[in-house]
Amino acid sequence: MWIPDRTKLVKVLLHADGIDVETPWAEDLGPVHDSSGARRVRLGNVPFLHAKPTYEDVIVVEPNPERGFLTWDSRGVPWEEILTRIDEDSERWVMIVDYEVVGDASSQTAFSALDIAGEKANIAVEGDYGPKPETPGRAYLAVPKELGVSNVMLLLEQSKLPLTLRLVHPVDE
Fold this sequence. Notes:
The protein is built from 2 helices and 10 strands. It is mainly β. It folds into 2 domains: 6-85, no CATH class; 92-169, 2-Layer Sandwich (Alpha-Beta Plaits). A 5-stranded mixed barrel has the order 1-3-4-5-6. Strands 8-9-7-10 form a 4-stranded antiparallel sheet, covered by helices on one side. The mean pLDDT is 94.
């Protein structure tokens, strides 16, 4: 699995016409060859509010002095055309799971086990929030296109994780 060069990490701002704002980390790949100040970056996180771009996608971000970040805007592009706003597609799709800890494991130990199992299968795992007594935790997975939902669930089940998983998205394979 790709590991970003930590010396080149920058926070970028993703949004869709001013809504669904989030700020993942990205590796700065250098300037776009024009005078706009735009830069190419490879995302190092699995965003929670955008199914695309996701982990390892390369996007072009533009300076935005008002927001103080290099910024990417989906510009209202319909989902079916979102790849037109991505410079290089990592060919990953996003899966969302809820999880509950079982046994004596701590929530950190359980999430770490999920993260390690994901890494072994080339799946990037991002925790949204941890479980609470009456609420499961939630994780976002950036899955390689060759793996389907049932493959991912089977791989994780076979990893004997100290947690139970419930598929949130996608609901149909």
